[in-house]
Amino acid sequence: MNDDEPPHTSAPGRARTLLRSLAPDLSPWRASRDFRYLWISGCVTSFGSFLTYVAVPMQIKELTDSSFAVGLIGAVELVPLIVFGLWGGALADALDRRKLVLRSEAALGLLAALLLLNALLPNPVLWPVYLVAALVAAADGLQRPALDSLLPRIVAHQHLSAAFALKSLYHNVASVAGPALAGVVVAFSGVQTAYALDVLTFAVSVLLLARIKAVPPPTGAERPSVRAVLTGVRYAWSRKDLLGTYAIDTCAMLFAFPVAVFPFLASDLGADWALGPMYAAAAVGALLVGATSGWTSRIHRHGRLLVVAAVCWGAAMALAGLSGNIWVVLLGLALAGGADEVSGIARSTMWNQSIPDEVRGRMAGVELLSYSVGPQLGQVRAGTMAGLLGVRAAVWTGGLACVGAVLAVAAVLPKLLGYDDRTDPHTAAVRAEHEQAEHERAQREQAVREQAGREPEEPEAAATA
């Protein structure tokens, strides 16, 4: 036994300590009722959305048998996502974020119903699929900033990293179960069943979101306008550490997000059965990281963690493209998913810890562009490169390009590597703001309780007078 080791510490005890340090931090779930509703709602709707995520490219492939047509879905979604993502950020800073999330969730459910109606036609039409995809991108652009900026208002500042890890956990579970089930559902029941299940999950999600308390805008919130949007963009540009997170995520998704060509990659490898597992593999890797995410609460230099994770993402995608063995491909995708989960935790923690509430919605709109526009362009890139170079070459060249681009961004923006939440002045200011808001909220609740306690005495006091 080591002399420095306490005599009562046994091997099983050390193992239990290690497991506790890796287990997800459940503090946000225990402390916040609204977070629990938000978490369950997200779990339900993510499951259904991943069914549609797989069904749409499969339906387009069946209608056109064109990799370009499948990749075009990203181009169709791009402009609505940019426009409504930025405007949605301005709305999130000026309106009740809970109402904005609830109404856009209902709109997304109606759009899923339109996909279902089109699929039920004797001869489904292609153009409504693209139209609904564009409208879904617009509704998602309106919702996502409010949804992301809602989290810091219902979760304590010290629990933000744990809250994102818990959100990622349900997302990754849905990513595994949704595509795996979608492959079976589409094969045996058609895309109609996948769309119908998605509509059902949206109905459940709306009922859950309706139970969250109102989240009014900050005092003196700027009214939504083009000027307000530009204020958010200028703030993002002034923060080079945040700018680095956006640039790295965009590069990673642009160059190494080949999801659009998965149906063709599976066929090229002679493994059509593996299409569902290919969609799910990245989520399996992310799920393993999310399920052992306790260590992330002890990380302070999130910029460095982000760079390392993004490089690993690109390298793993390159491995998947270079291999002609389906099992190695699945391994590469799983490794990429684990790296992406680490990257997401690092980015989200930096954003939530260091951005003040008055611009949080607009910054969430900028963030939406960084992690959503990249995948849309990535689908177009992958589909185009697959047509020019072949499917496998489109995957591995993109992975290597991702590694080079991430290293270049890290060299150009050194403030990203220097971020440390223990010394960052923006993080300190947001922490103080959050603590002040919590103190004021506690005072208001105490005043309400005291007033309620005096009310029964008032009639007696009046009668005595």
Would you spell out the secondary-structure blueprint of this structure?
Blueprint: H1 11-22, H2 27-31, H3 33-64, H4 67-94, H5 97-119, H6 126-154, H7 160-189, H8 191-209, H9 226-238, H10 240-255, H11 262-268, H12 275-291, H13 302-322, H14 326-354, H15 360-389, H16 391-412, H17 414-417, H18 425-454, H19 458-464
Helix pairs in contact: 3-4, 3-6, 3-7, 3-8, 4-6, 4-9, 4-15, 5-6, 5-8, 6-15, 7-8, 7-12, 7-14, 10-13, 10-15, 10-16, 12-14, 13-14, 13-16, 15-16
CATH architecture: Up-down Bundle
Category from helices, strands and their pairing: mainly alpha
The biggest sheet amounts to: none
Could you report the average pLDDT, rounded to the nearest whole number?
A: 82
CATH superfamily: MFS general substrate transporter like domains
| Tally of distinct domains | 1
Q: What's the helical proportion of residues?
A: over 70%
**Strand percentage, roughly?**
under 5%
Number of helices: 19
Query: What are the low-pLDDT stretches, counting only 5+ consecutive residues below 50?
Result: 1-6, 456-465
Number of strands: 0
Might you state the CATH topology name? Growth Hormone, Chain: A
Radius of gyration: 24 Å
Reading off the top of the CATH hierarchy, the class is best stated as Mainly Alpha
Describe this structure in words.
The protein is an all-alpha fold. It has one domain: MFS general substrate transporter like domains (Growth Hormone, Chain: A), CATH 1.20.1250.20. The chain has helices at residues 11-22, 27-31, 33-64, 67-94, 97-119, 126-154, 160-189, 191-209, 226-238, 240-255, 262-268, 275-291, 302-322, 326-354, 360-389, 391-412, 414-417, 425-454, 458-464. The longest helix has 32 residues, at 33-64. It is globular and about 75 Å long.
